[in-house]
Specification:
Blueprint lengths: L2 H4 L4 H10 L6 H12 L4 E4 L6 H12 L9 E4 L3 H14 L8 E4 L5 H9 L4 E4 L1 H9 L10 E4 L2 H6 L3 H9 L6 E6 L4 H10 L4 E4 L10 E7 L5 H11 L5 E4 L3 H13 L4 E4 L5 H12 L5 E4 L1 H4 L9 E4 L8 H6 L9 E7 L4 H11 L3 E4 L4 H18 L10 H8 L4 H21 L10 H4 L11 E6 L9 H12 L7 E5 L4 E6 L3 H8 L3 E2 L2 E2 L2 E3 L100
Parallel strand pairs: 1-6, 1-7, 2-4, 2-5, 3-4, 5-6, 8-13, 8-14, 9-11, 9-12, 10-11, 12-13
Antiparallel strand pairs: 15-17, 15-20, 16-17, 18-19
Bound molecules: adenosine monophosphate.
The site of adenosine monophosphate (AMP) has 16 residues, from helix 4.
Amino acid sequence: MNKFEQLGLSESLLRAILDLGFENPTEVQEKAIPLLLAQDTDMVALAQTGTGKTAAFGFPLIQKIDADNRNTQALILSPTRELCLQITNEIKNYSKYEKGINVVAIYGGASITEQAREIKRGAQIIVATPGRMQDMINRGLVNISQINYCILDEADEMLNMGFYEDIVNILSTSPDEKSTWLFSATMPQEVARIAKQFMSEPLEITVGTKNSGSATVSHEFYLVNARDRYEALKRLADANPDIFSVVFCRTKRDTQAVAEKLIEDGYSAAALHGDLSQAQRDGVMKSFRGRQIQMLVATDVAARGIDVDNITHVVNYQLPDEVETYNHRSGRTGRAGKLGTSIVIVTKSELRKISAIERIIKQKFEEKSIPSGIEICEIQLLHLANKIKDTEVDHEIDNYLPAINNVLEDLSKEELIKKMVSVEFNRFINYYKKNRDISAQSAGERRESDGAPRDNSGAVRYFVNIGSRDNFDWMSLKDFLKETLDLGRDDVFKVDVKEGFSFFNTDAEHSAKVMDILNGIELEGRKINVEISKNDGGGRSSSRRDHNGRSGGFGGGRSGGGGGFRSDRSSAPKREGGFRSDRGGSSDRPVRRSEGFSSDRPRREGGFSERAPRRSEGTRSEAPRARRPRRD
Ligand code: AMP
């Protein structure tokens, strides 16, 4: 009997779950489903977004609905149109083997008449945003006087968005005897008030710690001078070639300006804010979901309800005015059991906000330095090498090989590799070798008056050819290194894991041992290769905060185990393909023969990078975004 069967779910739901590929119930599902199936009860569930809560209420709801009765039996309220559509889709997927169940989404910005028509055809489950729902009730287009179930999803978000009145009005027109299930990431007073007013003796379940940030998100801050904020953002993007991120700004104007600058500098970015029309916003979201946009620059309001899995980083380009908002921002990453990072670019005057946020999320930030030019170059170079290794060859190229061989025949393999890599890489080196260090003075002493001197000397930084692809995250790699090298707790530091490779530091006294032992080892049939990196990684972290706030949580690291979601990090999508600049409608456009394969005219039309400068060189336009950094 699998774990879903043990929860008491019906045959048809189990079939749908099998199709969806869910292997094990998540914590919130394990806790909520048996309770909701066993009795008609009110429930308050504290669970972050991305924990599988839609299924936690969706499965029991579907099982309880009477499919032979066409009346509306359940109402699910959710904060945004995005989420509303997502929940509707999920419920449809879950109920696909359940005959006769109709789910209808109602939300603003679409035809109210069409939505009313759909409801008239018979919708046992309505998924709605509060504003449109209230509107339809007022116009008599919907009748919820017979519902048995009401679900308030992301209640804190709904109240944050000012839907208190609407929610109260809607709940007042529904029958008292119904069951109400409230899901919320946090429990501010307003949510507690709703619970008190409209629920009777609700069962309470909590996933993770109350009011805490998700255990799958680590938090980092980078201290810079205000004038370097944008440069810092670019460097962070360059140091994370696979970044797929939401970048938060405080105002619409800043959002637009940052997005424009990024686009100008050759990044795949777009702005999302309230001055865009609904159609424009939909277009941006579609491109973001399709991974044609790598950096979505957004305001808090516009980003509410963004529900995209696999976001690797949330970047707080500016901190929000209200520290509570930070939680909503960082919750956009670390979803569905994946690990995520929430980055804050901060100036000295804002540092106290970091401590305030730490108190709210009950997790510590790690202070990090903006990567140096050398470090970025190394990362990009290795990323490029990995990309070359992984590139699938299109055999159309075979026709051209004789001619290509003719040109290159005098080069040795070594020379050829050097030249190939240099084609993409020279401009990176040229850009970064001239650029200064932009990390501001460490915040360590400022935040922790331990007076301990910084130890920036004597650290050796290594490059090693294992990374997240081998199911490592920073924590498990650190453990692996400590164990393998028989080193102490703090002897391995500044562990930075990329997809196909990683960096770490030790003090110089350990370097012979590191090189000796690691270079002789095989990991699952692959030889480990470790080299000393040119960059020292900035010595030890001044605050000695080594991600100490995170629990192992969802399948962190090599074990790949743990309950809940599939934690196999290697199943994280390979984004190399996703961000290619030959995207959009032009992706299937053949290369112009006259340009040949080594053309310096990349196929780069369409999409969001139209305004990006044309690359002056480059073997392929989709090389791993060894972007042309701008010299301004
Ligand atoms: P939610 O918190 O409901 O937004 O869910 C986040 C994501 O996790 C969605 O893409 C779900 O399809 C997925 N999901 C939900 N339950 C499971 C499960 N038991 N195993 C794997 N994925 C799940």
